[in-house]
Design brief:
The protein has 409 residues and is of the alpha+beta class. The chain contains 17 helices and eleven strands. Strands 1-2-3-9-6-4 form a six-stranded mixed beta sheet. Strands 5-11-10 form a three-stranded antiparallel beta sheet. It has a two-stranded antiparallel ribbon with strand order 7-8. Strand 2 and strand 3 form a beta hairpin.
Length: 409
């Protein structure tokens, strides 16, 4: 256990940037170095002098997420936001500012706002949804160039979940593509995050208005009709959550699985040979490279101590899900031959992801379609040169250039 720091978090300087854990070649080594220096809870820099605690311990994360009273999801508790230290133009705000949805609420409010999401997902016809996903995957494969380079991220992995989820909400493909660009900016937390988040809000506001005038058999109408939503603002906030978090994590899961299949001969051989089931392969990825590497955010509601660090009221805590999966207490990260699903990739506790079944269905279908339709796909660049999409939160390839022969559906 580390010695508690006597300094307030917002007085610390020269901190490791959070993005250094997602953008480095070996995240496990980066997390291990932070553990050696600070223990299971380390101070990190979110963006140009904005500090937070990165919780890396498996047990510590489970303790935090099961204690809403001490560690709230409501960002109104964020001291740096209250005292004006966060610029109104900060790229962090689209992903950390207060929202009237289930993600940023606790207790009874959280349960009320989570209920429409659960109900909407439960109301989906799974066979119809599976057909939609398969058709989307095949359509995207058919669009790939017969000759010339293929990018399995931009032309496929990034497209499948957004087109699927947009269709489930009754959103047209052209708007789905614009929403995709907005979500990329949102998770990049860069200079364009605010502007494109505003565009995303405007697009979905129009979608809600159109569905008010002409209800349909889709998730937007289900959200509008559910009594858990008290107004259209709450419907908008829930749609932003579902489309943003759902698209980003699923596309990264698809891309990471394809990356490992293209770069790890042992992994690819076991999958193709049937020795490793597709779901076991997907769980291997969730252990070794979970899509949401660093999950925002919890805020301390009172002064406390966590893993030897003095946490002050109003401090921000980031859940290091990828770090927790490599925690020695959890047994390390090489689970190629195990169907163990004790990873934290979908979260745990009251705020665990409600769409993990749909996300797995989308990812499994997308990966299987590549196996069947592009069986000889090979990476055109060395594995060490696969670029990463810049984000402090998620870790996934920005591009996967391949050469492949497309088979008929």
């Amino acid at each position: 256990m580390t010695t508690p720091s006597n300094d307030r978090l917002d007085e610390l300087t020269d901190l490791t940037p959070l993005s250094a854990t997602t953008m480095c070649p070996n995240p496990a080594s980066a997390y291990q170095q932070l553990r050696e220096e600070c223990g299971q809870v380390a101070p990190v820099d979110l963006d140009r002098g904005i500090p937070a605690w990165l919780v890396m311990g498996y047990q510590e994360i489970r303790a935090v997420v099961r204690n809403d009273l001490s560690f709230s999801r409501d960002s109104h508790h964020w001291r740096l936001l209250r005292n004006g230290r966060i610029s109104p133009e900060s790229g962090l705000l689209p992903i950390m500012a207060p929202r009237a949805n289930a993600y940023f609420s606790d207790g009874a409010t959280h349960r009320r706002l989570r209920a429409p999401i659960y109900a909407g997902l439960a109301g989906l016809d799974e066979q119809r949804t599976a057909r939609l996903i398969r058709a989307t995957c095949d359509r995207l494969i058919d669009r790939l160039p017969a000759d010339g380079p293929i990018d399995l991220v931009t032309s496929y992995a990034a497209q499948v979940p957004m087109l699927t989820v947009a269709a489930l909400f009754g959103i047209t493909p052209d708007l789905g593509e614009r929403l995709q660009a907005c979500v990329i900016a949102l998770f990049g937390s860069g200079a364009d995050a605010q502007a494109l988040f505003g565009e995303m809000e405007a697009i979905l506001t129009d979608v809600i208005s159109a569905h008010r005038a002409a209800p349909a058999d889709d998730l937007t109408t289900a959200f509008l009709d559910h009594p858990g939503h008290h107004n259209d603002g709450e419907v908008l906030a829930s749609m932003l959550l579902a489309l943003g978090a759902g698209w980003e994590t699923t596309q990264v899961w698809i891309a990471q699985t394809l990356r490992i299949m293209l770069t790890d001969p042992r992994f690819a051989a076991q999958v193709r040979g049937g020795h490793l089931g597709i779901d076991d392969a997907l769980d291997h990825v969730l252990w070794t490279d979970p899509p949401m590497a660093n999950q925002p955010t919890r805020w301390a509601t009172s002064d406390t101590v966590l893993a030897g660090q003095r946490i002050a009221r109003g401090d921000a805590l980031i859940l290091g899900l990828a770090a927790a999966n490599t925690d020695p207490w959890a047994g390390g990260q090489d689970r190629l031959d195990s169907a163990n699903r004790a990873h934290l990739a979908f979260g745990v506790g009251p705020h665990a992801c409600p769409a993990k079944r749909l996300s797995r269905l989308i990812t499994r279908t997308a990966v299987e379609t590549v196996q069947h339709r592009l069986p000889d796909a090979r990476l055109d660049i060395p594995a060490t040169e696969v670029p990463l999409h810049p984000s402090p939160w998620t870790r996934g390839p920005a591009h996967l250039p391949v050469t492949a022969t497309r088979t008929r559906n």
